[in-house]
Design goal:
The protein has two helices and 15 strands. The protein is elongated. It has a 15-stranded antiparallel beta sheet that branches. It has one domain: Porin. A hairpin with a 2-residue loop joins strand 10 and strand 11. It is 13% helix and 57% strand.
Length: 198
């Protein structure tokens, strides 16, 4: 009887030891992309611009009546901190240029990387910009715009400004009357009024 009890006690202790040493999920490092994607402290924002333009050098490629972006933000050390732009949730309307009506689609997730702080303004590098631009008929003028842009968010005015620097590249060009060429440097300019839901 003692042997049976001793064996049962040994088995119970072994089972308890196994449960103690089971590996635990390791949390992502603070501030990492995977943590931010699921953080309960993040909240959605929307930004609306009425001065959106795409330019190829000195040529005004496309101007849009409105552009709305959506993404995630969080409360940072200096106030609102923008985290990303959800490309597929963005929308454009009233886009024209080069004798065409255009439709614009944003691809993937664009990431804000804060580089400096100046008073109420946060300076960002927005990476992963990826736009597909096509004429309404889908064939007369089609091209892609990709790269990174510099941006400034001013907490005092709640405005995000995309700096019109030629830091983007044009690719996959079809048609466009020869006015757009493969590899042309391009720029994107807009000022967004930012609204959040925390």
């Amino acid at each position: 009887m003692r042997t049976i009890l001793r064996m049962g006690l040994v088995a119970a202790v072994a089972a308890a030891a196994v449960s103690v040493v089971q590996p635990q999920a390791v949390a992502a490092p603070a501030g990492s992309a995977s943590e931010r994607a699921t953080s309960q402290q993040d909240f959605p924002y929307t930004g609306t611009a009425t001065d959106y333009t795409l330019e190829d050098g000195s040529t005004n490629l496309v101007a849009c009546d409105t552009n709305t972006i959506q993404g995630l933000a969080t409360d940072g050390s200096f106030g609102l901190e923008l985290l990303n732009v959800d490309g597929p949730s963005s929308s454009w309307s009233g886009c024209t240029g080069l004798f065409f009506n255009f439709e614009i689609t944003a691809i993937g997730t664009w990431l804000f990387n804060a580089t400096a702080q100046s008073g109420s303004a946060t300076i960002y590098r927005l990476t992963g910009v990826d736009l597909h631009v096509g004429s309404a008929d889908g064939t007369s003028c089609v091209f892609d715009i990709t790269g990174s842009v510099n941006a400034t968010y001013d907490a005092s005015t709640q405005q995000l400004r995309i700096n019109p620097d030629t830091t983007l590249a044009t690719s996959n060009v079809t048609g466009c009357l020869g006015l757009i060429n493969e590899g042309d440097a391009a720029q994107y300019s807009a000022t967004y009024a930012i609204n959040t839901v925390s």
